[in-house]
Amino acid sequence: MSDPMNDIRASFFIECEELLEGLFDALQTMSDGSADDETINVAFRAVHSIKGGAGAFALDQVVSFAHHFETAMDDVRSGKLAPSDDLVQLFFRCGDILSDLVRAARDETTVDAALVDPVLEELGKYSTSPDSGEAEEEISDFQPLTLDLGDLGAPADGADDDFDALLASLPPLPSDDEPQEPVARTVVFRPEPELYKSGNEPLFLLRSLGELRPSAVRLDFDPDSAPGARMTWTVEFDDPVKCEMVEEVFEFVQGLCTLSFGSDASPRESVPAEEAAGTFAPADLPMDKIPEPASPTSDVAPPLATIDPAATDEDGPAEATTAMPGGAPKGGAAPKNMASPTVRVDLSRVDRLVNLVGELVINQAMLSQSVAQSSLGSNTAITSGLEEFLQLTRDIQESVMMIRAQPVKSLFQRMSRIVREASAAVGKKVVLTTDGENTEIDKTVIERLADPLTHMIRNAVDHGLEKTEDRQAAGKPAEGQVRLSASHKSGRVVIEVSDDGGGINRPKVRQIAIDKGLIPEDAALTDGEIDQLLFMPGFSTATTVSNLSGRGVGMDVVKNAITALGGRISITSHAGKGTTFSISLPLTLAVLDGMVVSVAGEALVMPLNAIVETLTLDGESVRRLGPNSNVVLVRESFVPLLDLGVELGYRAPKENYAGAIALLSGQEDGHRAALVVDSIEDQRQVVIKGIQDSYGRVPGVAAATILGDGQIALILDPSDLIQNSSGQSRAPANIEAV
Amino acid sequence: MSISVLAVDDSRTMRDMITLALKDEGFEIHLAEDGQHGLEVLEDIAPDVIITDINMPRLDGFGFIDAIRDRSQTKHTPILVLTTESSAELKARARDSGATGWIVKPFAQDKLIRALRMVAG
């Protein structure tokens, strides 16, 4: 069984991410100038809650930084500091550092002080509190309390030993003689009327005092005093008790009662507070300020007789409990209130559910197939029941997939930091706008999108946007725009990164590709093809590798990462207006709508969203360019013809493709190809079963699945097939028909 | 008989910590996310003691305590304030607002239980 503290720790870090998200939202609102009072409160609370939780886990670095951050924000909140642009920008940086600190704490690493200190120093400049020492002192309060309980938590038996030792070493003098450890043998406690109003109850205080093992308790009643102040308890101890421990019991009522200590074993009948060897400074007591005689005593029922010490034991008599103020009914039918309408579930459980539903889909498909092949008519109860079953299975599947879906908001927020850092590094003014933050996508996709997206954003700032002077020269606003958007488009999520920079410098890109030997010098390339060069391995346009985007990672790595997620990436660029990178991703990684085809006796699955249309080829439209190199005329445009049987090594090329069936596959970048198959079997949802773990990366194959009849079929990766096809270099895509 | 506690804090971590500290110690725990939610919960239950954070959305701790003291059913219900600072000023403010006592965050389990027993028996 897992340690509950570890669970809470893990949950704390999740909460931190949510709080940081809220913090950045609020800061963004402040930065936009549309903040109200509550905005800064939200930001403050986020940092405050992180500090509070971090304190519980003794994450000192987080606590200390959050404290300074929070102090500055509190000053803004209280109006001592104006939220200037510079300050809000500093808050952003503080938020970044706080994120780093939280994540470092989560991963049990530390953050280099060289990163933290400059920001703290900046914050210090805004400090309105001249007494910085006080802040440090407060921080020292954040020790885990297990330490500070020490002697207070010691069992009474141990305390006795302490006292014996103490008594042996000291004559029984008045406690004042030993200022370090004042002790008392008599404690006199006289509540003020205010004490009852605060919700405190003398009985409970006395019971707590009972744990210090008094020998006798006496109650004096003075009818002449003000109501609520008529009772005085005198508690005697055979062995001297530390005043500090008594004060601990009366901590909450300090100032609401008269508490005095005596060293005498048998004090006088009534000990006037002023005369007793007091430790609570009388100045703290509102002795002269007797409140309205609201007669709070009528609401409580303090025992009127001398309390037997036994009654002060923890498991005291029943009436002790009924004397509680407020007389709250206990236990019984009171419903437990859930704090939140959300339930947090271990991800492995969700994944198990996803897997099981996947099996259910397969099972359902097998059943449908058996029924279809049986002699049952199409109007029987079985077939109609099966229809409903199919619908339900689909619904369940969608619902289960939704569990894994998360809004891309958290991902986008991380990107705003990337923009801040990147723009500062290259000295450009950049504004990031985001759109469609609530678009949901599979959690794993979001996690694995962070790196490629980071790289794309850096690229947009570093390469996409022109230098400020160049922008102004071109009549554009000095401030560059980077836009990040997410939206649903025909069953996929499309994420776009666009900038309003100068667009891709195509002659330059082309020249670089030639210099690097990526393309022949006389290659005739369309604009789209030149743009595609950016994705080629080993391509980098930066003349000098900046430490910003040139981290040895090119767009080819970005592309591979996107492809691995079942996604596609494309570019559109307009000279002088900017560039847009568009990523199209599947909603989920677990299921796929596919077309089951047969090639050389093998069942294969083609992702449905990659198929534009199906064709039956006639002899006229197929043109032979060379051995194993054909194109097909589709609506006045030549498209390369790829024989899947050949591409996958199942068989030799056919002599004649007339009459063959082909799937026209379209890519995000406009590349198309006609893929020849032997027959189309079915169109259905398949559950994706990864093969990478077992077989590594297989060219042209994305995954595998189990069909309704139990047969295993490979799921094809059309974009990989088309781009790495054997005929590709000889038959450039998209040749316009003359 | 178990002591019923209403713990009000906008931080899930803090609610979890309170729950963990009290659940096996004979307390019946009710939770709320902020003062407003706390008042809604109080419509259904009458806890023996209320623990509340100060900085919360919608209705903060001070407003929550005011509202508790205004209701006849909870006028005398002990209230412990959760505070991250142990400064005398904050304690005085908590007291003035009608709180019964306070717990300095981060708290140790025994300290929390002690404080609860001190105000609720």
TrEMBL record, chain A:
Histidine kinase domain segment(s): 386-589
Q: Which SMART domains match?
A: CheW (SM00260), H-kinase_dim (SM01231), HATPase_c (SM00387), HPT (SM00073)
May I have one GO cellular component term? cytoplasm
Q: Where is the composition biased (Low complexity)?
A: 320-339
In this chain the HPt domain maps to: 1-105
Q: Where is this region: Disordered?
A: 281-339
Principal EC category = transferase
Q: What does the UniProt function comment say about this protein?
A: Involved in the transmission of sensory signals from the chemoreceptors to the flagellar motors. CheA is autophosphorylated; it can transfer its phosphate group to either CheB or CheY.
The name under which this protein is listed is Chemotaxis protein CheA
Q: Which organism is it from?
A: Kangsaoukella pontilimi
Automatic annotation (TrEMBL), chain B:
Q: SMART domains per the record?
A: REC
What keywords would UniProt list here? Phosphoprotein
Q: Does the keyword Phosphoprotein apply?
A: yes
**4-aspartylphosphate: modified positions:** D53
Domain Response regulatory residue range list: 4-120
Query: Superkingdom of the source?
Result: Bacteria
* One Pfam family in the UniProt entry: Response_reg
A biological process term (GO) from this entry: phosphorelay signal transduction system
* UniProt cross-references to PROSITE patterns, sorted A to Z: RESPONSE_REGULATORY
User: What's the protein called, per UniProt?
Assistant: Response regulator
Species this chain originates from: Kangsaoukella pontilimi
